[in-house]
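note to self: dont lose this again. the chain is below, predicted strucutre after it. 328 aa total, dont forget to put it in the shared folder this time
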Amino acid sequence: MKVRNKFKGWLLIFYTVPSMPVNNRIRLWRRLARVGAVPLKGSVYILPHTEENYEFCQWLVSEVSSVGGEGSFVKVKRVETLEDRVVIDLFNKQREKEYREIEKGLESIERRVNSIKKGSRIEDYKRISDLMNKYLREFEEVRKVDFFSSRFGYALEKKIRNLTSEFKGLAGEEVKKQSVSIVPRHKEDYQGKTWVTRKRPFVDRMASAWLIKRFIDRQASFKFIDENDLKTLKGGVVTFDIKNGDFTHQGNMCTFEVLMKSFNLRDKSIKKIAEIVHELDIKDDKYRNIETKGIEKILLGIRKIAEDDIHTLEKGISIFDMLYESST
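---
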């Protein structure tokens, strides 16, 4: 949540709660820390004034009251005894402290990568990959409350990306085992087609249908069958995300990725969606996006309320339309 271009001032938070039970005090402190608040003086906390933070303060005061405490908050343009740059420095120093904890954890991965460079075998690929994802998740959590884009955060992000890229490069043998050759296809050969897939569409089929309709065949229609009925189909249809289909999983790629590569779709926003679909469909921890869980819940909701498969697909397509537009 960056505030540099929409800075409105500050929110000062005051609260006291009974000393017992201790759990209440700890819970409130953790929630303040999670949203990026920093202590200003004594028991006074401060946040940049944004709509999200204002809403959080309203919730916090209500929560304090519910456990028998007293709380309030005020919005101010400035703190009279402190220049804005001094307050901003308080935030940056706290974020730097949190970033340094992550950097410290990355040191073990750096040592392992250096060992691999010297000839060690990558026998613990999964464990290292899990660690990388763990520290990436922690970094994303801190970055969400790095309100003033601290220099240390930028440097650490660059370090994480370089380390991730370097490790994946060293793990080339692992990648080669899953590598496949994708045959290039031409959109003009796939216009006005009936695209057939399995019944009960979910993530990969919804996203693939969106990709087909928006970037490959705008006149596409869709049909659903049982997987065992594939041999009964007549010519002229195109099958996707179905066993032995025209476009389906290959190696460690989901159908969406296969379609993207087959038709040479290089849009950055499409690639971002491909990562999310891969996460949800393949579940191999190759990518980590903060939007993924939310998208999954929305698509699960669609499956529950949709009247039939076509209705499910249409609603799924609309979600990926909105996701794409939000990324461009």
